[in-house]
Amino acid sequence: MAGVSVGTVDRVIHNRGEVSDITRNKVIRIIKDSHYVPDIVARTLASKKIYRFAVLFPRENPDSTFWSKPLAGVNKALKETGHYGIVGEKYLFDQFNRTSFKKQIDRIIHNEPDAVLIAPFYYEETVRLIENCSQRKIPYVFINSNFQDSSKLSFVGQDSKQSGYLAARLMSYSVEQGSRLLIINISKVLDNHKHILNRQTGFESFFRENTNHKIDILNHYIKDTDKNSISNSLNEIFSKKNEIKGVFVTNSKVYKIARFIEENRLKPVTLIGYDLTEENLQYVEKNIIDFLISQRPVEQGYGGIMTLFNHFVLNKRVKKEQHLPIDIITKENYKFYIKH
Amino acid sequence: MAGVSVGTVDRVIHNRGEVSDITRNKVIRIIKDSHYVPDIVARTLASKKIYRFAVLFPRENPDSTFWSKPLAGVNKALKETGHYGIVGEKYLFDQFNRTSFKKQIDRIIHNEPDAVLIAPFYYEETVRLIENCSQRKIPYVFINSNFQDSSKLSFVGQDSKQSGYLAARLMSYSVEQGSRLLIINISKVLDNHKHILNRQTGFESFFRENTNHKIDILNHYIKDTDKNSISNSLNEIFSKKNEIKGVFVTNSKVYKIARFIEENRLKPVTLIGYDLTEENLQYVEKNIIDFLISQRPVEQGYGGIMTLFNHFVLNKRVKKEQHLPIDIITKENYKFYIKH
DNA sequence: TATAAATTCGTGTACGTGCACGATGCAATT
DNA sequence: AATTGCATCGTGCACGTACACGAATTTATA
Questions:
Q1: What 3-state DSSP class applies to B145?
Q2: Contact between B108 and B133 (Cβ < 8 Å)
Q3: Beta carbons of B291 and A328 less than 8 angstroms apart
Q4: Beta carbon of A27 within 7 Å of strand D?
Q5: In chain A, which among 39-58 make CB contacts under 8 A with chain B?
Q6: Burial class (CB in 10 A: 0-12, 13-18, 19+), B73
Q7: Do B117 and B54 form a contact (C-beta atoms < 8 A)?
Q8: pLDDT in single tens digits along all 340 residues of chain A
Q9: Class of domain A46-157+297-323
Q10: What separation, in Å, do the N-terminal and C-terminal C-alpha atoms of chain B show?
Q11: Which of the four, A22, A166, B281, B330, has the lowest number of CB atoms within 10 Å?
């Protein structure tokens, strides 16, 4: 149409220069008018370009099997996009070991990937990574836990505060006026997860805002996660007066509380926590855990890679905040959420 | 490797004959041993084959906006798979008009698509369609409502009975012993939706099986869906003695009940229904509807097309029953389920 | 034995794009 | 006038597969 060869058109499309302004404009005009879009299938076949995405995740550990799910989502996405030259390079760290996190970041920086998918566990090190990326124009996406940062490509995860708010709503159905509730934070390291605190904030604000629920809320922190420490810690609270009607655990460790309740044959309380792990589901089956809130972990990993795929291969614009639905899990519907 | 040309290998792969048994076996052997898989990108580029999928859905109507969502999912899938030669041909019928359903089936049979995605509304006509498909070896997939049929390729939708069961569990949190509950079926036509009845069955069986909940359940059918008929019908029930503590509506018409409750300023009841429609969400916002159960309508349409895509293009085996998660929707999390 | 028919196979072209290489034309330099 | 340099553009091959066509070989028929 423009009276030029495909080579010239190709140069225009890829901004490779070596085209006069006159022909360039002519070609651009025609591309627009005829609604031409490159055939990604042919493009993929012809191009030998390979996109290397670094994936910075915690390694699965005995204390929490959670992170195997996002990894499964990543692998699923990699399988689907492998044809298009996407390869994932995994950098797994020990989530309780800051040095291990730092080391993997060093490796990433050294290996120069085309993009990075980050589970931001430790603050300073994360900042170092994203500053390096910004400098080298490497896009990066956060997963699971958000990061205040305007130059990120995207965040894929849950609105943590809202999830706590939702938990409170669920709690409100089964506790009457004047009841006493308990929020439990149970974790070895506290500094690194703002979104855990957001859950607590959300939970509290529900009862503050819905003033028709007159509720007394206790906060409790458990730092040592071995069985004995938990037992001692909880005995104290529950023995005072067993007046607690509901317990909200701000992470996936809720099964440890459930176990305590079961073994001590406490009066039933409404128990709400996070994540569909094997251990948690056991107690859902036994009706000890009432609700679990799911973060859609598989979709997080899948969405993280797909975001980069859309950005690089399909040239789509991606949304900066991608909040996944907050799924409510009970004994009756959990089976439909597992598998993959 | 086999000492033959690509042409011969191609004939083996596609069972096009004209290959001696000896060479065929040799090639097959090598394909297996070397884990060869065809490059779908190159295949798509080279092949001019077009797959025409017929989509038999209800047309969106003022009474229910539900079916626009599966259609959106279908369109999304078609966009993604368009490169691979997938085209959708839509056959939309009036869900309250059996003749319209029949007519579209005639058109489908006449047009000879490569596969059919069916929302099975009327029984006999559906049987006629799938018998025709079986005869002509055209695969078909059911969506939303299941169909007892061993030769279908797949079903994509929800486990209806389990969703009713789940609704009952949610109800159980907010009603004390001895309460009276109400199940409302509200629909112009009753014969065509077994899965609506399954919801009721599931709800009832929860309270039968969990005998620690002593609950009295009333059933109520509303056939005329205009406002006055509903008013009259409900007035009768609620006026007797306003002792009803919870209402379960077995479909998306729950907003009509909510409206009645609002306008008559009835004592608050726990109200549970189906589907995230505009009208329903209004009453969720007002705290009149407590829970909605979502059928993941968009995913149903998306999954229906993707099932056929996997079958035809990727040669993947597809599962015969694909049950989507039963999402629990409240005022706090509904926002994350809409959009797309 | 010669010829026809059937079977089995190889070759060439196409799909739409990326990219290396070389060709062309014109202006600047020697 | 001859040469060089630069900007601009076209050509050809490659990617891995599908498929039409015709060639080669074997088997059947007269």
A1: coil
A2: no
A3: no
A4: no
A5: 39-42, 44-45
A6: buried
A7: yes
A8: 888 889 899 999 988 878 888 888 989 999 999 999 899 999 999 988 899 999 999 998 877 788 999 999 999 999 999 989 999 999 999 988 999 999 999 999 999 999 999 999 999 999 999 999 999 999 999 999 998 888 999 999 999 999 999 999 999 988 887 788 999 998 876 655 788 899 999 999 999 988 776 788 989 988 887 888 888 888 888 876 667 889 999 999 999 999 999 998 888 899 999 999 999 999 999 999 999 999 999 999 999 999 999 999 988 899 999 999 999 999 999 999 987 5
A9: alpha beta
A10: 48
A11: A22
SS3 B216: strand
Residue A58 has, within 13 A of its CA and on its CB side, a CA count of 23
Q: Which nucleotides of D are covered by protein (CB under 7 A)?
A: 7-12, 14-21
CB contact under 8 A, B83 and A165: no
Q: Where do runs of H (alpha helix) occur along chain A?
A: 6-13, 21-33, 40-46, 68-81, 98-111, 123-135, 160-174, 194-209, 227-240, 254-263, 278-285, 297-312
Task: Write out the two tokens for B186.
Answer: 């509200």
What are the boundaries of each domain within chain B? 1-32, 46-157+297-323, 160-294
How many whole angstroms separate alpha carbon A54 and alpha carbon A132? 14
B331/A contact by beta carbon, under 8 A: yes
Can you read off the two tokens belonging to residue B98?
């059996």
Q: For residues A246 and A269, is the Cβ–Cβ distance under 8 A?
A: yes
Check A41 against B83: CB less than 8 A apart. Answer: yes
At A51 the three-state DSSP class reads strand
Please tell me if the domain spanning A46-157+297-323 has the same topology as the one spanning A160-294. yes
CB-based burial label for A240 (10 Å; 0-12, 13-18, 19+): exposed
Q: Please give the single-letter amino acid code of residue A241.
A: K
CB B53 within 8 A of CB B45: no
- Per the structure, the residues numbered 14 to 43 in protein chain A that have their CB within 7 angstroms of any atom of strand C are 14, 38-39, 42-43
Query: Is the separation of the CB atoms in B278 and B66 below 8 Å?
Result: no
Question: In terms of DSSP bridges, do strands B51-58 and B115-118 run parallel, antiparallel, or are they unpaired?
Answer: parallel
CATH topology of domain B160-294: Rossmann fold (3.40.50)
Give the closest residue to A278 by CA, choosing from A90, A58, A60, A95.
A60
